[in-house]
Design goal:
Order of helices and strands: EEEHEHHHEEEHHHHHEEHEE
Bound molecules: adenosine-5'-triphosphate, L-homoserine
Number of strands: 11
Shape: globular
CATH topology of the largest domain: Ribosomal Protein S5, domain 2
Strand content: 25-35%
Length: 317
Amino acid sequence: MRLRAAHVRVRVPATSANLGPGFDALGLALGLHDELEVRALGTSDVRVEVEGEGAGTVPDDETHLVVRALRVALDHVGAPQTGLHLTCRNRVPHGRGLGSSAAAVVAGILAARGLVAEPDALDDDTALALATELEGHPDNAAPAILGGLTVAWSDEPGAAGPGAVRAVRLAVHEDVAPVAVVPPGHLSTRAARGVLPAQVPHADAAWQAGRSALLVEALGRNPELLFAATGDRLHQGYRREVMPASLALVDALRSRGVAAVVSGAGPTVLALARRGRDGTTDADAAIADAFGGVMAGWRVLPLDVDTAGASVTAVLD
Ligand SMILES: Nc1ncnc2c1ncn2[C@@H]1O[C@H](COP(=O)(O)OP(=O)(O)OP(=O)(O)O)[C@@H](O)[C@H]1O
Ligand SMILES: N[C@@H](CCO)C(=O)O
Protein backbone atom coordinates (compact mmCIF):
# COMPACT_ATOMS: atom_id res chain seq x y z
CA MET A 1 0.00 0.00 0.00
CA ARG A 2 1.30 3.47 -0.86
CA LEU A 3 1.42 6.48 1.46
CA ARG A 4 -1.12 9.25 0.78
CA ALA A 5 0.43 11.92 3.01
CA ALA A 6 3.81 13.04 4.29
CA HIS A 7 2.69 14.95 7.35
CA VAL A 8 0.05 14.06 9.97
CA ARG A 9 -1.03 15.16 13.41
CA VAL A 10 -2.68 12.93 16.03
CA ARG A 11 -4.09 13.39 19.51
CA VAL A 12 -4.47 10.62 22.10
CA PRO A 13 -5.96 10.71 25.62
CA ALA A 14 -4.56 9.48 28.91
CA THR A 15 -6.40 6.46 30.30
CA SER A 16 -6.97 4.84 33.65
CA ALA A 17 -7.23 1.05 33.62
CA ASN A 18 -8.77 -1.38 36.14
CA LEU A 19 -10.83 1.29 37.98
CA GLY A 20 -10.68 -0.97 41.02
CA PRO A 21 -12.26 -4.34 40.17
CA GLY A 22 -11.95 -4.37 36.34
CA PHE A 23 -8.40 -5.72 36.20
CA ASP A 24 -7.13 -5.92 32.59
CA ALA A 25 -10.67 -5.25 31.29
CA LEU A 26 -12.13 -1.85 32.23
CA GLY A 27 -10.62 1.49 31.24
CA LEU A 28 -11.59 5.15 31.16
CA ALA A 29 -10.31 7.83 28.78
CA LEU A 30 -9.33 11.09 30.48
CA GLY A 31 -9.14 14.70 29.35
CA LEU A 32 -5.36 14.92 29.24
CA HIS A 33 -3.75 14.44 25.84
CA ASP A 34 -0.51 13.77 24.03
CA GLU A 35 -0.22 15.49 20.66
CA LEU A 36 2.07 14.24 17.98
CA GLU A 37 3.19 15.53 14.62
CA VAL A 38 4.80 13.08 12.20
CA ARG A 39 6.60 13.91 8.97
CA ALA A 40 7.61 11.12 6.59
CA LEU A 41 11.11 11.86 5.33
CA GLY A 42 12.66 11.00 1.97
CA THR A 43 15.73 9.69 3.82
CA SER A 44 16.03 6.84 6.34
CA ASP A 45 16.68 9.25 9.24
CA VAL A 46 14.70 9.15 12.49
CA ARG A 47 14.45 12.41 14.43
CA VAL A 48 12.42 12.73 17.62
CA GLU A 49 11.73 15.97 19.47
CA VAL A 50 9.90 15.77 22.78
CA GLU A 51 8.33 18.60 24.74
CA GLY A 52 6.79 17.95 28.17
CA GLU A 53 6.58 14.51 29.78
CA GLY A 54 9.48 12.22 28.85
CA ALA A 55 11.66 15.01 27.41
CA GLY A 56 15.27 13.99 27.93
CA THR A 57 14.41 10.46 29.06
CA VAL A 58 12.65 8.66 26.18
CA PRO A 59 14.87 7.52 23.31
CA ASP A 60 15.15 9.62 20.16
CA ASP A 61 15.77 6.80 17.70
CA GLU A 62 14.12 3.66 16.29
CA THR A 63 13.50 2.38 19.81
CA HIS A 64 11.12 5.26 20.64
CA LEU A 65 7.76 3.63 21.41
CA VAL A 66 5.80 5.76 18.92
CA VAL A 67 8.28 4.91 16.15
CA ARG A 68 8.08 1.18 16.98
CA ALA A 69 4.27 1.19 16.89
CA LEU A 70 4.17 3.23 13.69
CA ARG A 71 6.51 0.76 12.00
CA VAL A 72 4.43 -2.23 13.17
CA ALA A 73 1.32 -0.59 11.71
CA LEU A 74 2.98 0.24 8.36
CA ASP A 75 4.24 -3.35 8.10
CA HIS A 76 0.79 -4.68 8.97
CA VAL A 77 -0.77 -3.00 5.93
CA GLY A 78 2.21 -3.57 3.62
CA ALA A 79 3.10 0.13 3.41
CA PRO A 80 6.70 1.18 2.84
CA GLN A 81 8.87 2.11 5.81
CA THR A 82 10.15 5.66 5.71
CA GLY A 83 12.37 8.10 7.54
CA LEU A 84 10.48 9.90 10.31
CA HIS A 85 10.52 13.23 12.07
CA LEU A 86 8.40 13.19 15.24
CA THR A 87 7.44 16.21 17.28
CA CYS A 88 5.81 15.07 20.53
CA ARG A 89 3.92 17.35 22.91
CA ASN A 90 3.45 15.01 25.84
CA ARG A 91 1.13 15.71 28.75
CA VAL A 92 0.47 12.17 30.00
CA PRO A 93 2.92 11.42 32.85
CA HIS A 94 5.12 8.37 32.21
CA GLY A 95 5.15 5.28 34.40
CA ARG A 96 2.40 6.62 36.67
CA GLY A 97 -0.61 4.48 35.76
CA LEU A 98 -2.20 6.93 33.35
CA GLY A 99 -1.68 4.91 30.19
CA SER A 100 1.35 6.73 28.73
CA SER A 101 2.66 3.66 26.93
CA ALA A 102 -0.77 2.90 25.43
CA ALA A 103 -1.05 6.55 24.36
CA ALA A 104 2.34 6.32 22.63
CA VAL A 105 1.47 3.04 20.93
CA VAL A 106 -1.95 4.27 19.78
CA ALA A 107 -0.38 7.54 18.59
CA GLY A 108 2.03 5.59 16.40
CA ILE A 109 -0.72 3.41 14.94
CA LEU A 110 -2.97 6.41 14.25
CA ALA A 111 -0.09 8.30 12.65
CA ALA A 112 0.30 5.32 10.29
CA ARG A 113 -3.48 5.46 9.64
CA GLY A 114 -3.08 9.10 8.64
CA LEU A 115 -0.12 8.40 6.37
CA VAL A 116 -1.41 5.41 4.37
CA ALA A 117 -3.60 5.51 1.26
CA GLU A 118 -6.28 3.20 2.75
CA PRO A 119 -6.81 4.31 6.37
CA ASP A 120 -9.61 1.76 6.86
CA ALA A 121 -6.92 -0.94 6.81
CA LEU A 122 -6.01 0.45 10.24
CA ASP A 123 -9.56 0.80 11.58
CA ASP A 124 -10.30 0.77 15.32
CA ASP A 125 -10.50 -3.05 15.55
CA THR A 126 -7.12 -3.43 13.86
CA ALA A 127 -5.62 -0.63 15.95
CA LEU A 128 -6.83 -2.37 19.11
CA ALA A 129 -5.35 -5.72 18.03
CA LEU A 130 -1.97 -4.17 17.18
CA ALA A 131 -1.87 -2.00 20.31
CA THR A 132 -2.78 -4.95 22.54
CA GLU A 133 0.00 -7.02 21.03
CA LEU A 134 2.48 -4.25 21.83
CA GLU A 135 1.05 -3.47 25.28
CA GLY A 136 0.31 -7.03 26.42
CA HIS A 137 -3.19 -6.13 27.67
CA PRO A 138 -6.06 -4.13 26.13
CA ASP A 139 -7.46 -2.11 29.03
CA ASN A 140 -5.60 1.14 28.28
CA ALA A 141 -5.50 0.79 24.50
CA ALA A 142 -9.30 0.34 24.21
CA PRO A 143 -10.31 3.65 25.87
CA ALA A 144 -7.35 5.44 24.25
CA ILE A 145 -8.77 4.45 20.85
CA LEU A 146 -12.52 4.63 21.52
CA GLY A 147 -12.83 7.22 24.31
CA GLY A 148 -15.20 6.99 27.27
CA LEU A 149 -15.55 3.87 29.40
CA THR A 150 -14.57 0.63 27.72
CA VAL A 151 -14.82 -3.05 28.49
CA ALA A 152 -12.21 -5.12 26.65
CA TRP A 153 -11.96 -8.88 26.31
CA SER A 154 -10.48 -11.60 24.10
CA ASP A 155 -12.61 -14.12 22.26
CA GLU A 156 -11.89 -17.71 23.20
CA PRO A 157 -9.03 -19.09 21.14
CA GLY A 158 -10.13 -21.68 18.60
CA ALA A 159 -8.91 -23.74 15.69
CA ALA A 160 -8.46 -20.54 13.68
CA GLY A 161 -5.89 -19.20 16.14
CA PRO A 162 -5.78 -16.95 19.19
CA GLY A 163 -9.01 -15.16 20.10
CA ALA A 164 -9.53 -11.67 18.71
CA VAL A 165 -9.30 -8.74 21.13
CA ARG A 166 -12.59 -6.88 21.33
CA ALA A 167 -13.92 -3.84 23.17
CA VAL A 168 -17.21 -2.02 23.67
CA ARG A 169 -17.59 1.60 24.60
CA LEU A 170 -20.15 2.66 27.23
CA ALA A 171 -21.47 6.10 28.13
CA VAL A 172 -20.35 7.63 31.43
CA HIS A 173 -22.82 9.45 33.70
CA GLU A 174 -22.27 13.23 33.57
CA ASP A 175 -21.84 13.49 37.35
CA VAL A 176 -18.73 11.26 37.33
CA ALA A 177 -15.71 13.47 37.98
CA PRO A 178 -12.32 11.72 37.86
CA VAL A 179 -9.55 13.22 39.96
CA ALA A 180 -6.02 11.86 39.48
CA VAL A 181 -3.57 12.26 42.35
CA VAL A 182 -0.16 11.79 40.76
CA PRO A 183 2.95 11.07 42.83
CA PRO A 184 6.38 12.37 41.87
CA GLY A 185 7.95 8.90 41.54
CA HIS A 186 7.21 6.41 38.81
CA LEU A 187 6.81 2.66 38.70
CA SER A 188 6.84 0.54 35.57
CA THR A 189 3.84 -1.58 34.73
CA ARG A 190 6.21 -4.53 34.39
CA ALA A 191 7.36 -4.11 38.02
CA ALA A 192 3.79 -3.69 39.28
CA ARG A 193 2.68 -6.86 37.45
CA GLY A 194 5.68 -8.74 38.82
CA VAL A 195 4.26 -8.74 42.37
CA LEU A 196 0.91 -10.30 41.39
CA PRO A 197 0.24 -13.96 42.27
CA ALA A 198 -0.33 -16.56 39.56
CA GLN A 199 -3.53 -17.71 41.32
CA VAL A 200 -6.10 -16.10 43.60
CA PRO A 201 -8.72 -17.63 45.91
CA HIS A 202 -11.98 -18.54 44.18
CA ALA A 203 -13.91 -16.49 46.78
CA ASP A 204 -11.92 -13.36 45.84
CA ALA A 205 -12.54 -13.93 42.12
CA ALA A 206 -16.26 -14.36 42.74
CA TRP A 207 -16.38 -11.23 44.94
CA GLN A 208 -14.54 -9.28 42.25
CA ALA A 209 -16.85 -10.40 39.43
CA GLY A 210 -19.80 -8.88 41.30
CA ARG A 211 -18.00 -5.58 41.96
CA SER A 212 -16.89 -5.31 38.38
CA ALA A 213 -20.43 -5.78 37.06
CA LEU A 214 -21.69 -3.25 39.62
CA LEU A 215 -19.06 -0.74 38.47
CA VAL A 216 -20.45 -0.70 34.94
CA GLU A 217 -23.86 0.26 36.39
CA ALA A 218 -22.29 2.83 38.76
CA LEU A 219 -20.26 4.61 36.10
CA GLY A 220 -22.99 4.58 33.50
CA ARG A 221 -26.20 5.19 35.39
CA ASN A 222 -25.90 5.23 39.13
CA PRO A 223 -22.86 7.10 40.54
CA GLU A 224 -24.21 6.66 44.11
CA LEU A 225 -22.94 3.07 43.80
CA LEU A 226 -19.36 4.07 42.96
CA PHE A 227 -17.95 3.53 46.42
CA ALA A 228 -19.32 -0.01 46.76
CA ALA A 229 -18.41 -0.79 43.16
CA THR A 230 -14.74 0.19 43.37
CA GLY A 231 -13.58 -2.50 45.79
CA ASP A 232 -10.76 -4.76 44.62
CA ARG A 233 -9.23 -8.02 45.80
CA LEU A 234 -7.15 -9.02 42.78
CA HIS A 235 -4.33 -6.50 42.48
CA GLN A 236 -4.18 -3.45 44.77
CA GLY A 237 -3.45 -5.33 47.99
CA TYR A 238 -0.69 -7.37 46.35
CA ARG A 239 0.83 -4.17 45.00
CA ARG A 240 0.96 -2.40 48.36
CA GLU A 241 4.61 -3.38 48.87
CA VAL A 242 5.73 -1.52 45.71
CA MET A 243 3.53 1.57 46.21
CA PRO A 244 2.84 1.93 49.97
CA ALA A 245 2.14 5.68 49.85
CA SER A 246 -0.45 5.23 47.08
CA LEU A 247 -2.29 2.50 48.96
CA ALA A 248 -2.15 4.61 52.14
CA LEU A 249 -3.85 7.41 50.20
CA VAL A 250 -6.45 5.02 48.74
CA ASP A 251 -7.19 3.83 52.29
CA ALA A 252 -7.35 7.40 53.63
CA LEU A 253 -9.74 8.50 50.89
CA ARG A 254 -11.95 5.41 51.17
CA SER A 255 -12.17 5.87 54.93
CA ARG A 256 -13.63 9.30 54.08
CA GLY A 257 -16.18 7.77 51.71
CA VAL A 258 -14.41 8.57 48.42
CA ALA A 259 -14.38 5.95 45.64
CA ALA A 260 -10.58 5.85 45.35
CA VAL A 261 -8.58 3.23 43.48
CA VAL A 262 -5.08 2.71 42.14
CA SER A 263 -5.02 4.01 38.56
CA GLY A 264 -3.82 1.28 36.20
CA ALA A 265 -0.66 -0.30 37.54
CA GLY A 266 -0.11 2.78 39.76
CA PRO A 267 1.27 4.62 41.53
CA THR A 268 -1.30 7.34 40.68
CA VAL A 269 -4.46 7.27 42.78
CA LEU A 270 -7.74 7.88 40.97
CA ALA A 271 -10.80 9.18 42.78
CA LEU A 272 -14.02 8.53 40.90
CA ALA A 273 -15.71 11.48 42.47
CA ARG A 274 -19.23 12.87 42.02
CA ARG A 275 -19.67 16.41 40.76
CA GLY A 276 -22.13 18.59 42.67
CA ARG A 277 -24.31 21.36 41.22
CA ASP A 278 -21.68 23.99 42.18
CA GLY A 279 -18.95 22.19 40.20
CA THR A 280 -17.06 20.90 43.25
CA THR A 281 -16.74 17.19 43.89
CA ASP A 282 -17.27 14.98 46.92
CA ALA A 283 -13.52 14.21 46.84
CA ASP A 284 -12.13 17.75 47.08
CA ALA A 285 -12.25 18.17 50.86
CA ALA A 286 -11.28 14.54 51.46
CA ILE A 287 -8.19 14.82 49.27
CA ALA A 288 -7.08 18.03 51.01
CA ASP A 289 -7.74 16.43 54.39
CA ALA A 290 -6.05 13.11 53.56
CA PHE A 291 -2.98 14.89 52.23
CA GLY A 292 -2.54 16.82 55.45
CA GLY A 293 0.03 18.87 53.52
CA VAL A 294 2.64 16.14 53.81
CA MET A 295 2.63 14.50 50.37
CA ALA A 296 5.23 16.76 48.81
CA GLY A 297 5.47 16.71 45.04
CA TRP A 298 2.10 15.01 44.45
CA ARG A 299 -0.18 16.72 41.93
CA VAL A 300 -3.97 16.78 42.08
CA LEU A 301 -5.48 16.76 38.57
CA PRO A 302 -9.27 17.10 38.22
CA LEU A 303 -9.94 15.66 34.76
CA ASP A 304 -12.87 15.38 32.38
CA VAL A 305 -13.85 12.07 30.83
CA ASP A 306 -12.58 12.09 27.23
CA THR A 307 -15.44 10.99 24.99
CA ALA A 308 -13.69 11.27 21.61
CA GLY A 309 -10.76 8.88 21.90
CA ALA A 310 -7.71 9.11 19.68
CA SER A 311 -7.97 11.02 16.44
CA VAL A 312 -5.98 11.96 13.37
CA THR A 313 -6.38 15.74 13.54
CA ALA A 314 -4.59 16.71 10.30
CA VAL A 315 -3.45 14.96 7.13
CA LEU A 316 -1.15 17.21 5.10
CA ASP A 317 1.05 16.85 2.00
N1 LIG B 1 4.99 9.33 24.76
C1 LIG B 1 5.94 8.39 24.89
N2 LIG B 1 6.97 8.33 24.04
C2 LIG B 1 7.90 7.37 24.17
N3 LIG B 1 7.89 6.43 25.12
C3 LIG B 1 6.89 6.44 25.98
C4 LIG B 1 5.86 7.41 25.91
N4 LIG B 1 5.01 7.17 26.90
C5 LIG B 1 5.47 6.11 27.56
N5 LIG B 1 6.61 5.67 27.03
C6 LIG B 1 7.41 4.54 27.51
O1 LIG B 1 6.58 3.73 28.33
C7 LIG B 1 7.06 3.71 29.68
C8 LIG B 1 5.92 3.75 30.66
O2 LIG B 1 5.09 2.66 30.41
P1 LIG B 1 4.40 1.84 31.57
O3 LIG B 1 3.52 0.85 30.92
O4 LIG B 1 5.45 1.33 32.52
O5 LIG B 1 3.57 2.92 32.38
P2 LIG B 1 2.26 3.72 31.98
O6 LIG B 1 1.80 3.31 30.61
O7 LIG B 1 2.54 5.16 32.16
O8 LIG B 1 1.26 3.27 33.10
P3 LIG B 1 0.00 2.23 33.08
O9 LIG B 1 0.26 1.23 31.99
O10 LIG B 1 -0.04 1.61 34.42
O11 LIG B 1 -1.20 3.06 32.83
C9 LIG B 1 7.94 4.95 29.79
O12 LIG B 1 8.91 4.79 30.78
C10 LIG B 1 8.54 5.04 28.39
O13 LIG B 1 9.62 4.14 28.26
N1 LIG C 1 -4.31 -3.84 33.94
C1 LIG C 1 -2.96 -3.35 33.90
C2 LIG C 1 -2.97 -1.89 33.61
C3 LIG C 1 -1.60 -1.34 33.39
O1 LIG C 1 -1.73 -0.20 32.65
C4 LIG C 1 -2.29 -3.61 35.24
O2 LIG C 1 -2.87 -3.26 36.26
O3 LIG C 1 -1.19 -4.15 35.26
